Amino acid sequence: MGLEYGSTGNHEQAESFLRHANELEPDSPLIFQELGSNSFHLKKYPAALNYFFKAVELVQLNEGTRPI
Asked: Is residue 42 a part of any domain in this protein?
């Protein structure tokens, strides 16, 4: 639902669904990436960066590479 709301420009509603998805799947880099994209659209740039970096960190941990 978060992706759907985001694609229609309703980023406030998308944020709510994405946060809930993050509670259900706290180690999903895809959800963190979507939270970052959504925060960027809401002009919450520091939060967006934090979400993007968390997504990268999770991918690197899953691949067994050194986190940034």
From this structure: yes
Query: Hey, how many other C-beta atoms are within 10 angstroms of the C-beta on 39?
Result: 21
The structure's pTM equals 0.85
- CA 43 centroid distance within chain: 14
- Amino acid of residue 36: G
- For residue range 22-54, list pLDDT tens digits in order: 999 999 999 999 999 999 999 999 999 999 999
| Structural domain count, the chain | 1
Q: Where are the beta strands (DSSP E) in the chain?
A: none
* Burial zone of 10 (CB within 10 Å; 0-12 exposed, 13-18 middle, 19+ buried): middle
Asked if the structure places residue 27 within a domain, the reply is yes
Encoding tokens for residue 32?
Answer: 């963190």
